[in-house]
Write a structure and sequence with these properties.
About 25% of the residues lie in helices and about 25% in strands.
Amino acid sequence: MPRPILATIHTAALRHNLARCRARAPDARVWAIVKANAYGHGIERAFEGLRAADGFALLDLEEAQRVRALGWRGPILLLEGVFELRDLELCSRLGLWHTVHCNEQIGMLASHKTNVPHRVFLKMNSGMNRLGFTPERYRSAWTRLNALPQVDEISLITHFSDADGERGVASQMAVFASVTRDLPGERSVCNSAATLRHSEFASDWVRPGIAIYGSAPDFGQHSAAEWDLQPAMTMAARIIATQDLAPGDSVGYGSTFVAKDAMRIGIVACGYADGYPRVCPSGTPVLIDGLRGCTVGRVSMDMLVVDLTALPQAGFGTEVTLWGRASNGAVLSIDEVAHCAGTVGYELMCALAPRVPVLVEA
């Protein structure tokens, strides 16, 4: 039989989370962000749950081709734009919209031969300091684009650096609004955190990413449950062995965990080669047969260990939910596990290993 580990993608949860984001910004259209293979969920697996979106936004042309191959005829936006001149040919063929964030991309458009003008999103660097034209150079970039016959409609876009924190978005929004106040075109400024926390700035398009996959973009201030988000991915495995420990016995590599009292442990068929973080310490939460438990010792490549002392009914074959929804309906947020690993839910989703079988659940 196959190794007893499984990732489940919950189509209904994706649909629910998308609707929650739309409800926060009812007058805006919604990009479903499916970059990084739909945050590790798989574009093809996530598509049915996200097809109620108004458009799909992603990074590279290969992913755009996959979305088109699924039958999507609506807008697709390349969030980082094109990387070389020939990319524009595929944009024309597939009808892709694309971000323009630097002079080089304007130059590519000026050199591009096309009968169909492009829809572009001109990006402002309003304080994130990654991509985009500075406020001082933004209007001149718009003027150059507007003069090109290769360009049709120009939309205006920026990205918030602190939508999930105390600093908020007001200062960046003020800069963006001031510079673009009399420029025509649709606006898009809100990511997941801004859509949930600052929906008054939702404008024409919002761009939820992590929220549609059931993770809180501001975990620590709000949980996914508090935002009424459901886990779109469950990672679960089964116990493949048990051991009884005496006081002083150690567990795993490095003997980092030593039993203070007699205890019973279960060995679970999941490790860091499956995408579970190696750095998760003893005490990281799990659900054992739907009941709250925790890990002990170091995570190995193919196995991790859980404490069964208070769960005498658990044994060989018992389900262990690493994150997501257990069979009894109990939920362990991916954000909790990520917090223990010193990271964010995004990374855990994207780290799901190819060797883990995946089931799509309606």
